[in-house]
Amino acid sequence: MNVARFLLTASLLLPAAPGGSGGTFDTRTASFAITFHDETTAYRDAALVSMPGAAVILQATGGPPGDYSAVTDAGTLVQQGSHQWRWTAPDRAGNYLITFDGPGKKDAIALHAFVMVPASAVKNGMLNGYRIGEYPSTPLNGNAIYRPPAGFIEVTKANQDTKLSPHFRLKQFLCKEDTTKRFPKYVLFKERLPLKLEMVLERVNAMGFAVDTLHVMSAFRTPFYNHAIGDVKYSLHQWGSAADVYVDPLGIDRMADLNRDGQVDLQDSKLLYDEVERMLAATDLARFQGGMGYYPATAAHPPFVHVDVRGTAARWKG
């Protein structure tokens, strides 16, 4: 078995939940993986975030022997070895494509590269007419993950459906405050977050719920919106590190009855929380550790689970 796929696929690391369907969910992984920015992914669609003009080392790993190739539609791609390339991002913000082919071009990975608009373009809390607000000037406890972001990903009508991973799209991570059809919008996401959500999705399918994505109730929040809804000052949603999700097989904005007791309530979000906890118990998934909490339904939303990629474990009941 491919080592990278073994590391990334939770259901291969842990037994399926009792009563799970198992074996029917297509993870859409390749026979090799790509590493960049300390991430490793074998998903056929993946996302990279970069500043304009920045250089990124890309490497093909864990695949069959043979020749690997890569091409890009923008920026400069220089091969540095049989399995390694250096990509220099374009100077202009936007989303670009780097395609990797395995031996014999029998397998490919599409790496969607998002070059950000520098944060210096934000003036008085606004970016090109989009309200961002103000980030805390001092990182929480000096932790670098709470520093103001270097830039923001521009979302347009044309790129909003771009895949960040096989089962999650850019538009799912947008701040929920802006429900208008106005573009551009702006967003942040940590590259590790969609990878973690893919594993949670696979786990849900192993539980016996056939869904092609998770309902992302809330992912990125601008500091303006985060303050408006009264969340904590250092909520990781503002840095694109967190997502509030639930399982919605019918696409009706309603959590599934996960424990099959005939009602949808806190016990269903607790069951999902427990399944993710079991998944993260695997030693090889330590880098996907983060905060997690489960929440009851309100008049505004069904029960849900918060997951993030802060790198250390934190647990709570909402």
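(ticket continues) Second input and output from the same batch:
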Amino acid sequence: MLENNRFDFIIDGLKNTFLITLGSLVLGVILGVIVAVVRSTYDKNHTHLKKRGGISYFLMSILNKICQVYLTVIRGTPVVVQLMIFYFIIFAKSDDGIAVATFAFGINSGAYVAEIFRSGIMAIDNGQFEAGRSLGLNYIQTMLYIIVPQMFKVVLPTLCNEFIVLLKETSVAGYVGVIDLTKAGNTIAGRTFSYFIPLITVAIIYLIVVMILTKLVGILERRLRNSDH
């Protein structure tokens, strides 16, 4: 495994794994915030919007339906199938597998992050909304300056766990030719005709990274609990 610089495959694969994971998480968080705000706004104000009617109710209904379809499709299909659809169909002319994989995993992660954020927003007491409105803030300003910051504190540990799950999900990026950590192990195994050492090495690296991230999440949760006191 160490001959002919084969271990460089592992290093490059780990780098690509982190690159895809971080890029996907950023895209997923952005998409998740947008979807969560749309869905929670519709749920919290559905009765009021319906009474008022007009273009605002129509637009919110359409946006909410689009978000529901997005969540249903993404959460109802395997991530590896979504990855291959993006690579072989939607972006068939692209030769940048890392960018396509980042986009695909980001779209997938966004659906789960959206539900995490939506549950966090719905958990915020309605008095916070009323306090913001009493200060003269409109709904968007209230969400931006009062609700969303509190929501992030509530869901941050869960969001960190989603990051860990996303890191492991990127192991299927090799289906579209991306040299991630798992693909690197398979490549070395194919060249040495020995699967034991390369795959055990890959498993150990994943385990170490996940243990470190889990430890950091635990520290974060304790600090958040202490700040509540």
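Agent notes: The mean pLDDT is 88. The chain is about 85% helix and 0% strand. Closing as not reproducible unless the customer responds.
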